[in-house]
Amino acid sequence: MRVIKSVKSIQQFIKKAKAAGKTVGFVPTMGALHDGHRSLLRRCRRENDIVVLSLFVNPGQFGPKEDFAKYPRREPADKKLAKKENVDIIFIPTAKEMYPAGYLTYVEVERMTQGLCGRFRPGHFRGVTTVVGKLLNIVMPDVLYLGQKDAQQAAVVTRMVRDLNFPVRCKICPTVREADGLAMSSRNQYLSAGQRKEAAVLYRSLKEARQSVAAGNRLATVIVGKIRSRIARESSGRIDYIGCVDADTFMPLKRIQGKAIVVLAVWFGRTRLIDNITVQA
Ligand code: AMP
């Protein structure tokens, strides 16, 4: 496994690998790796000759009052996990390597970034699409692996790839969960023991929503209302949003038709968790 820090070196390495006919798969992350990241790496390993993992806590996607400074950084443990998963290259750039002095260029996907996390985290998706756009030009992968856990992000990045003709295929991998259903996240470690227990209500309420759709309920207000009251009843979580959106466009739905996603963001203390479930009417 090679650890590469500079844009120039990784581009040289990838160009050579591609000239030798190798396929390149790419898993971008912010590190503090867990089994969710691991599932992306495993699929990437199965499907490609070269596996590239990036670790970069991207300052551009955090708001001024968000957790950039305290976001977990676990480089030694991440390297160990990557080695175990047979990663070929870990790309660990510095912020200066990615955004040198005088940096002026940003990528913005419109409309579908306005609602949900976009509404509560202004500038977040612009930060995500800018860094992923840069990473795609740096790593030049054939396949990009994203997690369904961050459903809006996956939809926005897929849209950027399509709209800007990045020559890469996006593959979205299922959410990996803890035994009680809580979606794995690097942010779960911020939770106190009590909050951690309470947070399992998120997936319980999403599963109930899916059952409710299967039983014939179609109205978003009814489905959202049930989730809202369950979270209030069973936890101290403070809701940012709960919504039903179209699976591709992420536009809000009043009635569920076809494939939709029920999404939510809820605070437990000072930790904001997101989760979602796909439903089919
Ligand atoms: P992050 O390091 O949190 O930015 O995540 C890096 C990638 O891993 C993103 O594509 C995430 O959607 C994905 N990911 C994070 N948590 C999970 C999970 N629990 N299950 C599946 N994928 C995940």
3D architecture notes:
With 281 residues, this protein is of the alpha/beta class. The chain has ten helices and nine strands. Strands 1-4-3-2-5-6 form a six-stranded parallel beta sheet, sandwiched between helices. A three-stranded antiparallel beta sheet has the order 7-8-9. α6 (124-139) crosses α7. The longest helix has 16 residues, at 124-139. It starts with a strand and ends with a strand. The chain binds adenosine monophosphate (AMP).
Query: Kindly, what is the distance between the CA atoms of the first and last residues, rounded to a whole number of angstroms?
Result: 46 Å
- CATH homologous superfamily (4th level) name of the largest domain: HUPs
The number of domains: 2
Cα-atom Rg, whole angstroms? 19 Å
CATH hierarchy class name of the largest domain = Alpha Beta
**CATH topological fold name of the largest domain:** Rossmann fold
What would you call the structural class? alpha/beta
Poorly predicted spans: none
Run of helices and strands: EHEHEHEHHHEHEHHHEEE
Mean pLDDT: 98
Which quaternary structure do these chains form? single chain
Binned strand content: 15-25%
CATH architecture classification of the largest domain: 3-Layer(aba) Sandwich
| Helix coverage percent | 25-40%
Largest sheet: 6 strands, parallel
**Which molecules other than protein and nucleic acid are bound?**
adenosine monophosphate
Spatial strand arrangement across the major sheet: 1-4-3-2-5-6
Number of strands: 9
- Shape annotation: globular
Total helical segments: 10
